Write the structure tokens for this entry.
Amino acid sequence: MTGSPSKSHGRKTISQMVKPRELMSHTPDLKGAWRAQIITLFPEAFPGVLGQSLTGRALKDGLWQLGTIDLRDFGEGKHRNVDDTPAGGGAGMVLRPDVMGRAIEHAIRRGPGPLVYLSPRGQRFDQAMAHDWAGLPGITMICGRFEGLDQRVLDHYRIPEVSLGDFVMTGGEIAAQAMLDATVRLLPGVLGNAESAVDESHSAGLLEHPQYTRPAKWEGLQIPDVLMSGHHGEVAKWRRAQSEALTQARRPDLWAKRRD
Ligand SMILES: C[S@@+](CC[C@H](N)C(=O)[O-])C[C@H]1O[C@@H](n2cnc3c(N)ncnc32)[C@H](O)[C@@H]1O
């Protein structure tokens, strides 16, 4: 698959010319570019998957910028400690408020955009939130580790908590990348085809219709005739009906909201 230009169906593709971490320093601070800052104990985890494909191309082109703030740099003492045992006892460690406070002050000095703490206790991230974030100048995300962050930091800075879903991961880095991917692809110019975000699942409160491509017959299964008919009106009608049927069957919660 490498070497030849891949078929992109009207969307941009990226070749792997720049090493992923170099993408983050590839462009100097660009005025007006949407800017993500990540406070993390694992800055080397970025850009991670965000350095690939459309988000990687957009990073290289300066449509958005990504910066990491290494929490360890703000740690206490010779060993740059960032955590301590939970007050009241119990398992694990908690990220210290003084250490995180210094990292947050640094982030506030450096970049625009509100602070969010990635946390399984938070409001569930969704497409509407991605749209809201894409309309901001940027965002600063705090990735927790261990048992999480001292509550006083959240209270003092009034930081909202946002969750990737009802499960617990070992840290916020994967959640940060997932949420940034969903947000960055909504920034102007990131998707090659301006239409492509419009018809997707969740953009209009519906799940997307099924997709097919060549060959026309595979394992004895045919592409539905209507999609091969060349009749755009009929194709649109079929897709709409499929979207509605899928949403009703799989996500009655979304379907109910749509009719409100
Ligand atoms: C092991 S978790 C801490 C879980 C915490 N003790 C609790 O029960 O709510 C460590 C860190 O991973 C991140 N994390 C884990 N699950 C997440 C989720 N579903 N969404 C966003 N971040 C998550 C958070 O930053 C959290 O501070």
User: Anything to note?
Assistant: The chain is about 30% helix and 15% strand. The pocket of S-adenosylmethionine is lined by residues 118-121, 143-145, 147-148, 163-165, 167-172, 175 (CB under 6 Å). Residues 1-11 have pLDDT under 50 and may be disordered.
